[in-house]
Amino acid sequence: MTDDPLDVAERWAKEGRRVALATVVDTWGSAPRPVGSHLVIDGEGAFEGSVSGGCVEGAVIAEAVEIAAGAPAKLLEFGVADETAWEVGLSCGGTIRIFVEPLAAGEGAAA
Amino acid sequence: MKLSDLKAVNAARTERRLCAVITPLDGSEGRVVFAADAASDPLAGVLARRFASGTSGREAEAGVFVRIHRPSPRLVVIGAVHVTQALAPMAEAVGFEVTIIDPRGAFATEERFGAFDFHAEWPDDALMKLDAETAVVTLTHDPKIDDIALLAAMKADCFYIGALGSRKTHAKRIDRMTAAGVSEADMSRIHAPIGLAIGAASPPEIAVSVLAEVIAALRGAETKAAAPERRAA
């Protein structure tokens, strides 16, 4: 039993929960978490891991709940040039791109 | 990501196998590629580069994100000596899983090394668990102990092999191991005298120089500080 997001994702899927996976795919400037960092979210908004050290988690989780419930995968971008980024609080001066995708139990494509 | 892919990745991480997850950013189906199969993948060039550096990243041209899952590096230290007392906690701070092995009872005190994965036994394969993501550092000054680990490290293709001792000691080591059938190519993989040339004057300073050299090997960095004559016999 670990807190590692990918282990948690597998465990949650086994429990029958709907799961979405968020991954930092690009960073510029002083992004708080490195490329490849994962955040795993279930349909109820429970989460494990980190994509920004707290700055944009709330916004990512809100999108991820939709995606866990069946919405298509989405590429999110947060940065100082983006007013919504300020709203959600990426005030550390960096820009990050986060890909949020469903964990697909079946054979089909992820989206 | 498919659940079957996630399971494959988690199994690979448990088994310390290098793999990559390729995720198309348009939401289409991704795939898991193991390092051993990378050459036959459509993105073979990208994967070769990323497996070598261990870094994840977006590939704009291919429209994918490549997540490299590299096993956490291990450091096996042969010799529970003063250098080890500084080296072990620093290596842990850097992210290495540290194992310390020394069969000599007088040195091998639980008091000094109890906080680490410490074994007061002879180094053997089961204890060392060597692989390509492991660095081996021998510090006992006792060839009977050190040589076992050095030979095992060559066989396991460890990413770093270092041996404490002067040039003279290393010259004797080369004679001894060459006579035992070790190739020149394998001998040249041993960093000896060990560590970057930073003028280390105390055991903790030697630990810094050793750890810096291990990190340079891990990241594939050129180590200009290690003058060629330091490696020579």
Please supply descriptive tags for the structure shown above.
heterodimer; A: 111 residues; alpha+beta; 5 strands; disordered C terminus; B: 233 residues; alpha/beta; six-stranded parallel sheet; elongated
Description of the molecule:
The complex is a heterodimer of chains A (111) and B (233). By secondary structure, chain A is of the alpha+beta class. Chain A has one domain. Chain A is built from 3 helices and 5 strands, in the order αβββαβαβ. Chain A has helices spanning 5-14, 57-68, 83-88; strands spanning 19-28, 38-42, 47-49, 74-78, 95-102. Chain B is α/β, with parallel strands linked by helices. Chain B folds into 2 domains: 3-69, no CATH class; 74-231, NAD(P)-binding Rossmann-like Domain (Rossmann fold). Chain B is built from 10 helices and 10 strands. In chain B, the strands form 2 sheets. In chain B, strands 7-6-5-8-9-10 form a 6-stranded parallel beta sheet, with helices on both faces. In chain B, strands 2-1-4-3 form a 4-stranded antiparallel beta sheet, sandwiched between helices. In chain B, strand 8 (134-138), helix 6 (143-155) and strand 9 form a beta-alpha-beta unit. In chain B, helix 3 runs parallel beside helix 9 (203-219). The longest helix of chain B has 17 residues, at 203-219. Chain B starts with a helix and ends with a helix. Chain A binds chain B through residues 6-7, 9-10, 13, 21, 23, 25-26, 35-36, 72-75, 97, 99, 101-105, 107-111, and chain B through 1-3, 6-7, 9-10, 13, 23, 25-30, 55-58, 65, 67-68.
